[in-house]
Amino acid sequence: MRLACKKVFFRDYVFYVWENVYEPSEDSFLFAENLAVRKGDFVLDVGTGCGILGVIVAKEASMVVVVDINPYAVRCAKENAELNGVIDKMFFVRGDLFSPFRMDGRFDLILFNAPYLPVEFSERVSWIEHAWAGGENGRRVIDRFIREAPRHLGRGGRIFLMQSTLAGVEETLEGFAREGLKASVVAKRNLPFFETLVLMKAER
Ligand SMILES: C[S@@+](CC[C@H](N)C(=O)[O-])C[C@H]1O[C@@H](n2cnc3c(N)ncnc32)[C@H](O)[C@@H]1O
User: Fold this and answer.
1) pLDDT of residue 122
2) What pLDDT, in 10s, does the model give residues 29-82?
3) Which atom from ligand 1 is nearest to the alpha carbon of 141?
4) Is the distance from CB of 164 to CB of 194 less than 8 angstroms?
5) Which domains does the chain have, with CATH numbers?
6) CB within 8 Å of 122: residues ≥ 6 apart
7) Higher pLDDT residue, 142 or 193?
8) Which of 24, 71, 95, 192 is disulfide-compatible with 28, CB 3.0–4.6 A?
9) Ligand 1 — pocket residues by CB below 6 A?
10) How far apart are CA 176 and CA 150, in angstroms?
11) What pLDDT does 105 receive?
């Protein structure tokens, strides 16, 4: 049975967004506008949602692996890869961050539009809450990502991470530095109520 869905457009791409899946928003679009993919990159899109970032980079990439903790998101991303003609270049995995991946040092590019809102998970956390709730300080998933991502990065690899100022940008830059990566801010967008979206890049 097919779940209810919305249609989202970005440039020439169209995405169906199923119920229980994060609908691409300001953060997704700012990320999509700043995707620095190189021809032939082997890419990992962490927390793919409807697949928007993975599908867009698939045009230039040699291969794109997408992972999400939400099983509805993984199926939705697969449908959108097919719809946008890039399914042959993509792999779809359900899992928690890097837990499905055994091999170290593989990816040229790792992307993550993280759950970053400083909101504690409810007792029976819903799939959609996984998309935005980052725990008490917004950093529960971000901090794990920073610790785990570097060992999955190939030589010359880059990480792009999206979060907002509500989850502490300095902590993220310092976290990457602790892991031996140079990190910087590559794009920003102000939102109402003193919040700014921040896209960061980290590399060796
Ligand atoms: C803000 S949404 C971004 C979705 C999509 N990349 C976009 O830009 O529209 C965050 C996504 O991360 C996923 N996610 C949250 N925690 C995760 C985890 N521990 N492992 C894998 N995916 C996770 C959520 O299910 C959600 O799809």
Assistant:
1) 76
2) 999 999 999 999 999 999 999 999 999 999 999 999 999 999 999 999 999 999
3) 19
4) no
5) 5-203 (3.40.50.150)
6) 129
7) 142
8) 24
9) 22, 24, 28, 31, 46-49, 52-53, 67-70, 73, 96-97, 113, 115, 130-132, 141
10) 9
11) 73
